[in-house]
Amino acid sequence: MLRALYDWTLSLAARKSAERWLAVIAFVESSIFLVTADVLFLPMSLAKPSRAYRYALVATLASTLGGIAGYALGYFAYEAIAKPILMFYGKLESFEALKACASEDTLVLLLVTSGLAHLPPIKVVTILAGVAQVSFVFFLLSCIIARGARFFALAWALQRYGETIKTFIERRLGLLAGIAAALLIGLYLAVKYLAASGTPTC
Length: 202
Hints:
This protein is mostly helical. Helix content is 80%, strand content 0%. The protein has ten helices and no strands.
């Protein structure tokens, strides 16, 4: 099923309505859809490099709105809607594990790593943020900054290097994103350890 969804999403890049579809995919990936907006964003930006930043803005705003929808599902309708969605995608177990150990500061970290690197999946973290009733203002800012950083960084790379970097991004984006997330987690743990030990952190 995932491969079919991936191929269908990729095919949308060739349509005249591709920009609208980018907004739709970026929106739904944050709460109910498996395939990320990057699949559509990459070929669109390569086909029209002059519009790469425009596409990045569309994807950032739509992804943020989708994040708000996911937050609302967790906040208002977890049992009725969000939980069945997580069960359908096989994400309920990982969600419950995160929920059991999530504190306010770890949720801050997860919001950043999911926005930058899809680690954990965005839909899991947005719903969790709603369940945990994270400050909505903070949630909104984290969505805009983290997701915007990802899309605009990709737009810059594609506009600057074009087709030569496409294969590298497609093959190594997950690895690079994982490394970035690991570095953020390592930094967070180091700061938390230093704070707990009473050692000045600045």
